[in-house]
Design a protein that fits this description.
The chain is of the alpha+beta class. The protein has helices spanning 4-28, 34-84, 90-104, 132-135, 146-151, 164-171, 174-183, 217-248, 258-273, 289-296, 298-313, 339-355, 383-405, and strands spanning 110-116, 121-128, 139-141, 159-161, 189-197, 200-209, 279-286, 321-326, 329-335, 358-360, 363-365, 369-376. The longest helix is centred in the N-terminal third of the chain and has 51 residues, at 34-84.
């Protein structure tokens, strides 16, 4: 910003020029009334000052505007980092990213976030100012994106597209172009930045405007800074997600761990106590686990646990949940189902494993399991009691099975 001295210069020159004009006027026309000379001198002062001030004033206004934009940009970045720390859902984080990006980038009106999926495909994860219901139906090849085309697949810089629809019409088939156009019809120009996390392409953020040629170098610089902060936030969020997952799930089978299962069971028993829920709990252990461990080793024993977890999960309905309670012990809860409904399902799962054995090299092993069922309603308030009763039922069934078949 200019100094006070520099700001004062146009007024000095304007006043000096006007005084000179007045002296010349009096010299040439001595009979002119003093009031008229004063009036004309004042007019000349204003005209001269305006002439000197105009380009200076415009530059000054631009500097003030740039400073205000810089301050606003810093505030938006700060708010983004603070607010993101309070979120625990990806969808909310992605929506916040786009909201703050539009606030941070001058001329921005809309935005979208593309994420790399399997292979070379991309999908829309979030949108601001666009119809997300339409966008989520569109799948793009990474080679069809602005960033890929304009950087020759290097993804090493932010790019500007001044004719959004003409670009898409060239790279997309007619059906996808029409679908995308219906969701983004007001877009005229766009600035797109690659999002690199740990040097790997994670996705792209697109900032849109409804005016032609809305973006320039200053917007590229601001978006670059914003994306840097965005990458930091995403990395922190992913680590928090991992930490939360590790707290709640078994790392081998990806089933609920004992702690998280107990939380869910206690909540269901509380609802049962209120009379709003009943259900069935099933306690299980693998009959063939020790045999597999002893004969084929612990790594193959782990495969048996994963095989069981995946096979059992495939038969669960909405609201049902399964836990690896410990070792080869598993527990499932079927809210809203009586034991008469649950037991046929468990027998069906047993037949599933008979028809789908675990193959360890050339040898295939049927995963057999014993189970015990117990219904719960308002009479069950203690999760340890219901677990004890289910275990007792399971071991009784195991003893009966051993006595009739000879299997351990």
């Amino acid at each position: 910003m200019d100094s006070p001295r520099q700001t004062f210069i146009p007024y000095v020159f304007g006043a000096a020029g006007a005084i000179a004009f007045g002296m010349v006027l009096l010299f040439l026309f001595p009979a002119v009334p003093a009031w008229l000379v004063l009036f004309l001198t004042t007019m000349a002062t204003g005209i001269l000052i305006a002439g000197f001030e105009h380009p200076h004033y415009l530059a000054y206004r631009q500097q003030v505007q740039r400073k205000n934009e810089d301050l606003h940009f810093k505030d938006v970045i700060y708010d983004f980092v603070v607010e993101s720390a309070k979120l625990d859902k990806r969808e909310d984080l992605y929506n916040l990213i786009l909201q703050k990006a539009v606030e941070a980038i001058p001329n921005a009106k809309m935005a979208s976030l593309l994420k790399v999926t399997e292979g070379c495909h991309m999908r829309f994860e979030a949108a601001y100012g666009h119809n997300m219901d339409i966008l989520r139906t569109i799948e793009l090849n990474i080679e069809e994106t602005f960033s890929h085309v304009l950087t020759n697949g290097k993804y090493d810089r932010t790019v500007i597209v001044n004719d959004f629809h003409a670009f898409n019409q060239k790279v997309l088939d007619e059906e996808r172009y029409d679908t995308l156009n219906s969701a983004t019809e007001s877009v005229e120009s766009i600035i797109s930045a690659p999002v690199l996390i740990d040097s790997k392409l994670w996705g792209m953020i697109n900032i849109d405007s409804d005016a032609f040629k809305s973006f320039g170098q200053e917007h590229i610089e601001r978006l670059g800074i914003f994306v840097n902060e965005m990458c930091k936030v995403i990395k922190i969020f992913r680590q928090q997600e991992l930490n939360t997952w590790l707290m709640n799930y078994d790392t081998l089978t990806s089933l609920l761990n004992r702690r998280h299962f107990t939380e869910l069971l206690r909540a269901d028993l509380a609802r049962a106590k209120e009379g709003t829920l009943s259900g069935t709990l099933v306690s299980m252990d693998l009959d063939s686990f020790k045999h597999i461990n002893d004969q084929f080793g612990h790594l193959n024993g782990d495969q048996a646990l994963v095989h069981f977890a995946n096979g059992f999960q495939g038969h669960l309905g909405e609201g049902d949940y399964l836990s690896r309670y410990g070792g080869d012990e598993f527990v499932a809860v079927f809210p809203g189902k009586k034991s008469s409904e649950t037991e046929p399902l468990i027998r069906k799962i047993q037949h599933h494993f008979i028809n789908n054995p675990l193959c360890l090299g050339e040898h295939c092993e049927i995963i057999r399991f014993s189970y015990g069922l117990i219904e719960f309603d308002r009479d069950f308030n203690d999760h340890t009691k219901i677990m004890q009763l289910a275990d007792e039922a399971m071991y009784e069934n195991k003893r009966m099975q051993k006595s009739t078949t000879g299997h351990s």
